[in-house]
Write a structure and sequence with these properties.
The chain is mostly helical. The chain has one domain: Hypothetical protein af1432 (Orthogonal Bundle). About 55% of the residues lie in helices and about 0% in strands. The chain has 9 helices and 2 strands. It has a two-stranded antiparallel ribbon with strand order 1-2. A hairpin with a 2-residue loop joins strand 1 and strand 2. The longest helix has 25 residues. The protein is globular. The relative contact order is 0.15. Bound molecules: fe (ii) ion (FE2). Fe (ii) ion binds next to helix 2.
Length: about 220
Amino acid sequence: MQKNPAHSRFPSLEALPALALPKQAPQALASDELCFALWDKYAMPGNIREHSLLVAKIAAALATRGQDLGLAINVDLVRQSALLHDLGKAYSLAYGGSHSMLGAGWVVAETGNYALAQGVLHHVHWPWPLPCGSQVCSLPLIVLYADKRAKHDQCVTLDERASDLLERYGHDQEARETMMRVFAEIKTLEQALADCLKWENLYADTFDSRGLVNRR
Ligand SMILES: [Fe+2]
């Protein structure tokens, strides 16, 4: 069997980092520093850190616009949830399983903050109909959309991201059809966010000067 480099970070199931002591207050306030400490603890590789910084930048830009328009949205929480959205990726690449479920479980255990975990849990796919009106501008949907605009550490359009994923993972007809359906749903989300945030060229915006997150 070919050796998976991720196995050296988690040589066995028992090698998983111990979860934080359950002393933290429920719904504890998070911080960017806590997110970065969790990156270290869960051995997040450099390329996923770069990707997560970009997703956080895009998500923060969208949330800030929502806040400026008077919507009830917590920009810090959105940014921090985006920073953590791929926390479970390295482990699931090594051992399989759902990186979104694993990461969300770790985030709840580490922070006691369910809002942060919500963005992690739902960043791959939103299984329900989109909420109406301004409710679409919510933490999990913003993180999900931001992730679809980030190809590694590069901001791209949804079409570019879809063709990249089709090329890498569209191994059979069923996989391709599922991806096409998911991206059609994300395009609907993009339009709903653009309407809600009055952001005409959202589909092409590269967020260059918005939502900057301090690199470590
Ligand atoms: Fe991601």
